[in-house]
Write a structure and sequence with these properties.
Blueprint lengths: L11 E7 L4 H13 L5 E5 L13 E5 L8 H7 L2 H7 L1 H8 L5 E5 L3 E3 L4 H6 L5 E3 L8 H10 L6 E5 L2 H17 L2 E2 L4 E2 L2 H4 L9 E3 L17 E3 L5 E3 L3 E2 L2 E3 L24 H16 L22 H10 L15 H8 L21 H18 L1 H14 L12
Parallel strand pairs: 1-2, 1-4, 2-3, 6-10
Antiparallel strand pairs: 4-7, 5-14, 6-7, 8-9, 11-12, 12-13
Length: 405
């Protein structure tokens, strides 16, 4: 049974994934869906189940531990929160297609500004719908697209056809096993896999509707203007359907995102209005603080699970007994972590990025001096080989022999 063309029905589903710290964002999305007469959002909570008063009038809630995936804790342990939540998107989609004719995924930090009726209509004639990060070549950004993937999987739509199911099964197998954020090895969670999907699924539809998935990474090609009816148009032609507020800067909404992008410092006025609206709606749902700790970051005794421990576990997971609980402080994974000095108490780890370079300038200068000495001592060709070795060693999951079992 299919929907009436251009409308949603009880046979259409929209879902998102998030941990408790992101719940306020997901609720803004849920509210915007209701505003435009769309199906009630299904929110899959990637956190341990706790007693909390959830607004069931806005959305339906599902705790990830209860969705029925075998060995769910193994995925929660080997992946960090971004990897874990993205790894199960195709699995959840397949599950939903058992009961629905059309399924749409939206990232929790998206917000509707118009109806999805056009999208539902497109699913009458398309098996799979994706959107590129952007459609206008961009010198600096093109390298980023090579690293992170051609399509932004903060949105996708599928229908209950054999081809869509085949696509989801293919994607699901790869996400369960290889949903790592390791761009140095060509992996970028769930996204990079789908860059090659058009090679295998000829009916996959790439949408060039500029009103879908507007975000900081495509703002260089998309200008917003009022449509005179309380909504917006993109480039004066496409209705703004949904905006993706990725890495939204709540303290500085005029900057839109914490990430750098073209025109960020210009504080574009056409983006300011939607940014201020989004901030106001987030404040409305701020009863769950964004600082809520992610429960799967800790062993049962409160010891923090470092990124290194996650990768080490992934490299030796087959060495542990079937159905083991990796979070158990009396179990074999905990003993493995102690033996390899991979426990670090309760302190949380924040990986350093390019934005931290200034704060570590002194250390970087010292490292550069040391590398110059190595370059002089071994020569340029051997130095390049050493550099390549460091890239390989940067993934502990590929170096099983590093660990004591």
């Amino acid at each position: 049974m299919t929907d009436l063309q251009g409308t949603a029905s009880e046979h259409s589903a929209i879902f998102t994934v998030c941990n408790l710290a992101y719940l306020s964002k997901a609720l803004v999305l849920a509210e915007s869906l209701i505003k435009f007469g769309q199906p009630k959002l299904k929110i899959y909570l990637f956190d341990r189940k706790v007693e909390i008063d959830l607004p069931t009038g806005l959305a339906d809630f599902y705790w990830v531990e209860e969705i029925g995936l075998e060995n769910i804790q193994h995925y929660a342990f080997k992946y960090d929160i971004v990897e874990f939540s993205t790894s199960l998107k195709p699995w959840i989609s397949l599950s939903l297609l058992e009961n629905f004719d059309k399924v749409v995924f939206l990232d929790p930090d998206t917000c509707l500004f118009s109806t999805l009726d056009g999208l539902w209509g497109e699913l009458d004639s398309h098996d799979i719908i994706l959107t590129p990060h952007y459609i206008t070549p961009h010198v600096d950004g093109d390298i980023g697209m090579l690293r992170f993937g051609s399509f932004n999987l903060g949105f996708y739509a599928v229908s209950s056809t054999s081809e869509a199911v085949r696509f989801l099964q293919w994607w699901n197998e790869r996400c369960l096993e290889h949903c790592y954020f390791e761009t140095q090895f060509g992996l970028s969670t769930d996204q990079k896999w789908v860059s090659i999907a058009p090679c295998f699924f000829p009916t996959l539809h790439v949408s060039f509707n500029l009103g879908y998935n507007v975000a900081f990474w495509n703002s260089h090609e998309r200008a917003l203007s009022s449509d005179g009816q309380g909504g917006y148009t993109v480039n004066g032609n496409f209705p703004l359907i949904f905006f993706h507020f990725s890495s939204f800067d709540e303290k500085n909404p005029e900057l839109l995102s914490k990430r750098t992008f073209a025109d960020r410092d210009k504080k574009r006025q056409d983006l300011l209005e939607v940014s201020l609206y989004y901030k106001e709606r987030l404040t409305h749902f701020s009863f769950i603080p964004a600082s809520t700790p992610y429960a799967f970051d800790y062993m049962s005794d409160g010891n923090y699970i470092s990124p290194t421990l996650r990768r080490a576990y992934a490299s030796v997971i087959e060495s542990f007994p079937n159905n083991h609980d990796p979070f158990d402080a009396t179990g074999p994974v905990y003993q493995f972590a102690k033996k390899n000095y991979l426990l670090r108490g309760t302190g949380h780890f924040k990986p350093a990025g390019f934005e931290d370079a200034k704060a570590h300038s002194g250390k970087l200068q010292a490292i550069n001096k040391l590398l110059k000495v190595v370059l002089f001592a071994v020569g340029p060709n051997r130095f390049m080989n050493i550099s390549r070795l460091f890239v390989y060693l940067s993934s502990f999951r590929l170096n099983k022999k590093l660990w004591k079992l």
